[in-house]
Amino acid sequence: MTEIFLYSTLVGTLGIxxxxxxxRKIKSDRQRKQDASVAYTPDSLELENPMALDFVDASDxxxxxRLAAKYHFGVDYxxxxxxxxxxxxxxxWSADSDKSLHARLIEQNLSINQIYDPSFCHSxxxxxxxxxxxxxxxxxxxxxxxxxIYYSDSRYHDKGDFTHIGLxxxxxxxxxxxxxxxxxxxxxxxxxxPQTVGESGFLLPRAVIAPKSF
Length: 214
Known about the structure:
Oligomer: single chain
Low-confidence stretches: 2-11, 16-23, 25-50
Number of domains: 2
Number of helices: 7
Mean pLDDT: 80
Number of strands: 6
Largest sheet: 6 strands, antiparallel
Order of helices and strands: HHHEHHHEEEEHE
Structural class: alpha+beta
Shape: globular
CATH class of the largest domain: Alpha Beta
Distance between the termini: 51 Å
Strand order of the largest sheet: 1-6-2-3-4-5
């Protein structure tokens, strides 16, 4: 009875449009509080992996990296799938537009299109290409920045240039959620990381992404 009276009073005072606007804001605030309750781990809770965010959907590497960037570094990214991140945020570095990387690849009789291809998994040049890519992108890395990573065995190659996302946390370490595994990987070992969790294929950075306000 009280709820009906309050509803009638609010509608009478604000009109139905005003009432709906306030109701939407209340729901939005409530959802924001719910998100915050899971997005921020209390300092008193000791995690075996301090970068872990176990509440995030294990299949969503993009959301995982984005929330980790917010929680640990206070960096806000516009959300999206891995392949949407460049458009919604800002590209700091791209393998496709790095002329020095292209020159290094030419010296190895290779091209960008060749190295970002599933068939390259069996190439003898995999390790040397990984070094070339890492040397090119390293000057653009800083804590809290997100990396767009090509995964050769992804099912979503038709979506964009890369389908995996990782967060750079400093000291040459990428933290990412790979097929349900929360892992910290040295950049130099990223190329063969899938094998460490029983998967096939390789991982190779393709872009460095920052928020537009970073």
